[in-house]
Amino acid sequence: MRSSQHSDAGSGVVEPWRSAHLPIEQAATPPSSWYTTSGSYMSMPYVVTRSYDNEIHAFHNVCRHHAAAVATGSGSQDCLTCPYHGWTYGLDGRLRRAPEMRGVQNFQAADYGLQRIRVATWGHLIFLNFDDTGDVTLEAQLGYEGLQSMEAAGMTDSHLQHVASREYNLNCNWKVFCDNYLDGGYHVSIAHPQLAAGLDLSSYKSKIYESCSIQSCQPKDAAEARLGERKAAYAFVYPNLMINRYGPWMDTNVVLPDGPNRCTVQFEYWLDQSLVHDTSLFDASLAGSDKVQQEDIGLCEAVQRGLQSSAYDTGRYAPTLEQPMFHFHRLLHRDLCLERT
Questions:
Q1: Distance from C-alpha of 189 to C-alpha of 329, rounded to nearest angstrom
Q2: pTM to 2 decimals?
């Protein structure tokens, strides 16, 4: 087998984002309250709201008057007001107020609500789908067996509470970051000695599903507190979501391309509710996680430099370990072929 990695990902971004359900970085919307959060996927600005009826909505963050953004950042508010001309929308997207538009011929407020984006929820996560014509559900995209396995690994545990957010900026292509995550633990013993000391790497296994893969590993008896006693599970959901469940912790990683040679990775951390006030565990766990991320950043940026060298063409898979990476490449190849047809 030969790797399909390439340093120029300009064409390797569009199609995987076009029709997939994509995770947003923050799903910890407070229940039974109004809430907004905004962001952007590949120059597609969005705003997500939780309205008074506890329904989650998603819209293009584009005013129907002159295209300005109607929301920035996150917070609690009961409407979305465009800062340009004051057009105001409810959290359900309906146009509430349009100054100086009363009596305008052929203008009906009901026709000028925010444009909707398809939205779905699973566990603690919110997913957006920018394909207006698609009808594939999130469940169908992920596949029944993959969903069942992720739920069995505790990735929808209702006892988890969101406790922290982090963001990392890397000088590498987004696919390089995914490849590093998907090598079946190949690099762990070499690049992450502290992490490896708490894992029984001989128990490392990978399982492939329709649009996701799950790597798992048993902890050692003397594992550090953040790894706990439960089997660690690392799920990759195509194209850009990673869910890591270990001990009392879960973290999610959403990788977003910033061009062919840069990406941003957004981390969200959840902790068992019974431990959220354990400051020593909290501080030590986040420090341990950051150490692993810094080690991975060094690896990914070194790979990116190597990919840009004329000395490198393609590598070889380690077939007993890198099945998750190969699966990712096959899905990516499928979508790139669709883009060219």
A1: 24
A2: 0.89
Tokens of 46: 């969005």
Q: Give CA–CA dist 212/150, Å, rounded.
A: 10
Residue 163: domain span: 142-340
Nearest partner of 209 among 322, 331, 122, judged by Cα = 331
Q: In DSSP terms, which residues pair with 168 in a beta bridge?
A: 265
Which one-letter DSSP state was computed for residue 116? B
Lookup: tokens for 185: 């633990």
User: Residue 195: what residue type?
Assistant: L
Average pLDDT, the chain: 89
Residues 281-329: pLDDT tens digits? 999 999 999 999 999 999 999 999 999 999 998 899 999 999 999 999 9
Asked if the structure places residue 240 within a domain, the reply is: yes
CATH of the domain at 107: 2.102.10.10
* Tally of domains in the chain: 2
Q: CB within 8 A of 264, min separation 6: which ones?
A: 167, 168, 169, 170, 255, 256, 258
Contact (CB, 8 A) for 160 and 294: no
Q: Is residue 13 part of a domain?
A: no
CB atoms under 10 Å from CB of 341, counted, come to 4
Structure confidence by residue, pLDDT tens digits, 82-131:
999 999 999 999 999 999 999 999 999 999 999 999 999 999 899 999 98
